[in-house]
Amino acid sequence: MTTAQEPNILDAELFPSEQGPPHHLFDRWRENDPVHWNPSNPDYLTRMPESSGVKSFWVLTRYKDVQDVSMNQDLFSSHEAGIVVWQVEGDALERQRANFMMMKPADHNAVKKVIMPPFMPKALAAIAPEIDRLAADIVKSVAGKGQCEFVFDVASRLPIYTFCELMGIPEHLRDQVADYGNALADVESRTEHSLNPMIGLFGLAQEIAEEKRRNPDDRLLSVMVNDTTLNLDPMQINQFVLVFAMAGHETTRSTAAHFIHLMHRHPDQYALLRSDFDAHIENAIDEVLRYTSTTTNFTRMAMADTEIGGCPIRKGDNIYLSYAAANRDPMVFEDPHRFDITRANAKRHLAFGVGPHVCIGARLAKMQLRALLKEVVTRIPDIHPVGEPEWLRSVWFNAIIRMPVEFTPEQVK
Ligand code: HEM
Question: Along the chain (413 residues), what's the average pLDDT of each consecutive run of 10 residues?
Fold first, then answer.
């Protein structure tokens, strides 16, 4: 059931004004209208490059529905109309379908096989000492100062370094790649005069791809560019860099910032974590992921007439998978709005998605978070935000973009 007074989930003010996803609204919908029709928002001024507006869609708030739809790529496609709330058509849609996350299932499988090895446990174990060393360096660079801006001085640096290393992006281009990735995620602040970050990123991607053709190495981008079985075209390579510049950085950075923010808000939980860091950290990271859901949603399109939870769905309807709402479903998570780092089933969260498109960087993200947070919690344990952090204005990401923090300076031994 939809009423004219219902808030529109595509209201760009909704998430920042709530300091995250609007859970009271999701709770109401999950209870009374779990497959909720959200019309396109005529007031929404689209800033997403190449998009013509925002989609209308069914919002899924129940864990089971989000999971079932995500698992069934034949019926609920990532390829047909893309995976984000913005509407893209014609040539622009064709270009976006070159993106790994939007490929036809057979192509997606083939590419996934080629790119998975560096994300598997054995390969990750090999880079773990380097991640630990970098995490220590990053925290050391601020630990003596007594204050810093946590998001960019601390949280951002490790994910940028890591995804650039994996991809084989040369050092002198890393900041630029990260800046373009940030600008792409920051859809709402863009003005019509802003440089289109997609064009900037594609230019860099082509430059790097050319270099990899001339001088191949063992990193992901080189493997992709030079793989003769896949024969990826330049747009597929561009889109590949775009996915990693966005997915590999902003999400991990935000989760680290949310972690510190939540520990400050829940001193009992922080005391528990500090009482035995190694015993609690894995579950604490999962609980922060569940509680915050930095990537709040992706979309799918129904490929045939069907139903979800008894609600009829027509071929061509868009579906909004609310990971944020699913992660607070009381059918799965007892007392879901309680933040509890000992929650027995925290790791069942859907913050990384589920099914054929589940996040391939999940293990890597957790490894980085663990390394970074260990340094922060053991070296500057009284870290706390100064004032309220600043939230990204977004209908997509639940992200803290600025969080000044203070702490007792570490004494140099
Ligand atoms: C806390 C950190 C992260 C979160 C919350 C997150 C979230 C997600 C989500 C929800 C999806 C599912 C997309 C869908 O179903 O359509 C996804 C996919 C993906 N993520 Fe992550 N991600 C994180 C970190 C990373 C990292 C570190 C990398 C790589 C370095 C990465 C690379 C990817 C890629 C390539 C996909 C596409 C998978 C596919 O379509 O098969 N992510 N991520």
Answer: 74 85 96 96 78 93 98 97 92 89 94 92 94 96 96 91 90 84 69 69 91 94 90 88 86 96 98 98 98 97 97 98 98 98 98 97 97 98 96 90 96 72
Burial class of residue 272 in the structure, from the number of CB atoms within 10 Å of its CB (0-12 exposed, 13-18 middle, 19+ buried): middle
Separation of 249 CA from ligand 1 center, angstroms?
A: 10
325 falls within a domain: yes
User: What are the residues facing 311 on neighbouring strands?
Assistant: 308
The answer to whether 405 and 385 are in contact (CB under 8 A) is yes
Residue nearest to atom 12 of ligand 1 (CA): 353
Structure tokens at 220: 């992901």
User: Comparing C-alpha atoms, which of 404, 410, 362, 132 is closest to residue 260?
Assistant: 404
CA distance 183 to 99: 18
Using an 8 Å Cβ cutoff, are 392 and 186 in contact?
yes
| Those residues with Cβ within 8 angstroms of residue 42's Cβ, 6 or more apart along the chain or in another chain | none
Q: Does the residue 322 lie in any domain?
A: yes
Half-sphere exposure of 294 (CA within 13 A, CB side): 28
Handedness of CA 21, 154, 174, 215 (dihedral sign): negative
36 occurs within a structural domain:
yes
CATH number, residue 316: 1.10.630.10
Q: Is the CB of 255 under 6 A from ligand 1?
A: yes
- The residue to mutate among 295, 296, 359, 363, having the most atoms of ligand 1 within 8 angstroms of its beta carbon, is 359
Q: What is the separation of C-alpha 323 from the centre of its chain, rounded to a whole number of angstroms?
A: 11
357 burial level (CB within 10 Å; 0-12, 13-18, 19+): buried
| Domain contains 330 | yes
Pairing assessment for the beta strands 384-385 and 404-406 based on DSSP bridges:
antiparallel
Q: What is the C-alpha to C-alpha distance for residues 294 and 303, in angstroms, rounded to an integer?
A: 28
300 touches 318 (CB < 8 A): yes
How many folded domains does the chain comprise?
Answer: 1
Please tell me the distance from the alpha carbon of residue 391 to that of residue 165, in angstroms, as a whole number: 29
Domain that holds residue 167: 29-406
Q: What is the DSSP letter of 389?
A: P
